[in-house]
Structure formats: C-alpha cells, structure tokens
Amino acid sequence: MPPHTGHPLFMVRPRMTRLRLHLCGRVAALLVALALSASGWAAPKSPEQASTLPPLPQVAQDVASPSAQVRRKALRGLRERGGPETLPLLAGLLGDAEIDIREGAIAGVIGVYVQPRGNRSSNNAAASFEAARLHDQPWSVPPELSTALVKALADDEPSVRRDAAYAVGIVLTAPVTDAVAFEILASLSDREPSVRVAAARALGRLRVQDAGVPLIGRVNDEDLDVRLASMRALGDLKYDRAVVALTDQFTFYVRGVAGRSAISALAAIGHPSTIPLFDAQTTSGYPAHRTAAYEGLERSGGAAAAVPRIKAAMASERDSRVLIAMAFALASAGHDDIDRILDALADRERSDQALSYLVDLGERRVADVAARLSDPDPFVRTQIATALGFIGGAQAVAALKGASGESDTEVAKAINFAQLRLTRAKAVPAAGAPRP
C-alpha cells in the first residue's frame, strides 16, 4: 500500500433513517427474472407499438395488484412503453416484495433516462451510468421516484442496492440535499464491493463535497475496483485536498491501472501544484499518461506556457487520444486547434472524448462549436447539439433555435433534448432537490 492512509473500517449501515422505510417481506426463493432480464435493457418500443399497450390507468391497477404475476406483467408493459410517463408507476414497484420486480423496476427507470445510442447498448446499470454522463435524457423527476430510489439504497439485496446507487447518480442532479448525500455516503461503506463502487461513482457525479474525505479513505480499499472508482470520483469532485493521496497512488502504481486512474483524477482536479508532474508525463511512454498530462495542463492553467512544446510534440505523436488532448490544451490557450477536436467527433471511438473537451471549453469556444451544426455528418451534428446543451449561454440557445428545422430524426431529437436541458437549467432547484 502507498504511504498515506490506512483502511477505513467498515461501518454497519443503519437500517432505518428518516428517508427509509424498512423493506419487509421475504425474498422469493426462486428468481423468475430470466424472462425480464433477457430483454431488460432493450430500447423502448416505437409510438406505434406503444399504442397497442394497455392504457396507463389499467397498468396502475396492475402495479397495485396483490398478485406478483400481475405486477410482473405490469412491469413488462411499463418497460415496453418507456417514456417519462411511466416513472411514477415504476417508482411504485421499486419497493416490491419480489427481488426480480425491484431489479426490473430500477432497470426500467434507467432505461427511460438512458437509451442506447446507435450500435452501442447499455446492458447494465454501470454501462448506462457511464453513458449518462453526456447522453442522459433530461426528464423531470417525480418526487415519488427520487424518494423510492433513495430508499432502495438500503435494500436487502446487494444487486438492488448497487443498481439503485447508479440510478440515483443518473436521475438526480447536483446539488442533492444533505439527507440524500448521507444515504449515498452510507452506501460507500457497504459490505458488497460493487455497491461501494456504484456509491463512489454516484457521489462524484452528484458533486457531494462531503464525500471527499471518505473517498480518500476508499483509495486504499481492499477491492481494486473500489479504489479506482474512488479516485475517479475525487477527480469528478475536483477535490484538491486529495492531490497528495492521488500523487502517492500514481508514484506507487505508475505502471498499472491504479496509476492511470490516479493521474486521470489529478488531471480532472487540475491543481496548479501538479503542473510539474504533468509536464514530466507529456513524454511518458504510456499514451494514457500523456493524455492525462495534457488534460491536466489545460485544467491547471499550465497549457499557455507549454504551447511551443505541445506544438513541437504534435509532429511526432501518433496516438489519436493524445493528439485530441493536445488540441484541447492548445484550444484552451487560444490557439486554433479546436478543429482537431471538432473533427474527432466523427470518430465513433473518440467522439465522446472530444465532446467532453468541447463541454469543458464551454462558452470560450461556443462559436466554433455552433458552426459545426451544418456538418454533413448527422452523427457529428448530434454530438454538436449535445455539446451546446451542456455549454449553454445565449449563443448556444440561438444556434439550437436556428437548427430547429433539422430533417434528420436523431439530430432533431438531440436538438430538442439540448433545448430542454437549457430550459431546465434556468429553473435552478432548491439546494438538493431533484430535477424540476
């Protein structure tokens, strides 16, 4: 172990809190979820198919049925229907007595907010959580849904607790209330490693600053995946008090996956004290280290001084990930290399890396981003619309409005969601409330 902190002791999770009801009833001895899980993460049906499904009032009656078979049928119908109108009814199934129904209800909720993109499938909660970082659908959150998801964090079954943590990170938006933050923090001490992983990721996504110290403790967790998730969460939080611990991790595990995670987290934090580390790693033999180094130079304010060296290094760099990160650093320093980032949107393997950089650059380069709404590639236009929805500002709003006549269905959908995201952003909720 690197020389910074010891293992935090596992805490016994309280079974009752002000937000939770004890989940009663026996877990079914035989799981009958196979039929549900086989198509558990399928895309919602088309409007034509949905029109043949039972009306929602009938489904609502079935959700409340004492028969587990009827409730399972209702769940299948809700997941086939999809759409935000199903969320209150899915919330009612999150506390069901049957484990397969609870699992299916969480999957149904996540499926409403995160749908497959092109040839990519999100076949589990963790994959959907990752996709939701830039590609969630900004639906409103019914109060009963947020309450039910938080209660599910205390479920008796580890699989439900795990997926509920991912779902909370997908559905809710920062900032969350202190009470909700407390519940997710409790999951960070769960005895099941996969739950701790999900909790760490959710705490980072929801910007729970009180999680900083506990996450530093989990950097030395006995489980590797928990350590990696905790480092990533510290980066998401931009928690500068973690710089020493993360630097120790990088120094100790420099050649392994933990080393890569540590320098990526340091790059996300971008503390000025780490500029010498990033400078040194620009010549690393590991592409992941070089990528993180250029990201770190941009976020720490060290890119401007490094411009001549970055431009010189570009001539010999062959890794596409590193080249895009170099362009990110140069673009932030006012140079014209943003075109390299915009061109990378057409590369399905690198598109989301480029998209995240455009979002980070924000309104500084919004005019360059908006100009690509006329790109001939519909996939690029979709990514551009998504970027504008996160960047915001008057120019982004005007560009999206000007593209409202888009003929491609997927691009038009992305434009609509971007406009919805910007509209929602104007209505800032009370601190800790779920999405409006």
Instruction: State the helical fraction.
Output: 55-70%
Oligomer: single chain
Proportion in β-strands = under 5%
| Count of DSSP-assigned helices | 25
* Beta strands, count: 0
Q: List unreliable stretches of 5+ residues.
A: 1-45, 428-436
Distance between the termini: 44 Å
What composes the largest sheet?
none
Q: SSE order, as H and E?
A: HHHHHHHHHHHHHHHHHHHHHHHHH
In short:
The protein is mostly helical and 436 residues long.
Notes on the structure:
It is a single chain. The protein is an all-alpha fold and about 425 residues long. The chain contains 25 helices and no strands. The radius of gyration is 23 Å and the shape is globular.
Helices and strands in order:
Blueprint: H1 34-38, H2 47-50, H3 56-63, H4 68-81, H5 87-93, H6 99-113, H7 125-135, H8 143-152, H9 158-171, H10 178-187, H11 193-205, H12 212-218, H13 224-237, H14 243-252, H15 257-269, H16 275-281, H17 287-300, H18 303-314, H19 320-332, H20 338-344, H21 351-361, H22 366-371, H23 378-391, H24 394-402, H25 409-426
Helix pairs in contact: 3-4, 4-6, 5-6, 5-8, 6-7, 6-9, 7-9, 8-9, 9-11, 10-11, 11-13, 12-13, 13-15, 14-15, 15-17, 16-17, 17-19, 18-19, 19-20, 19-21, 20-21, 21-23, 23-24, 23-25
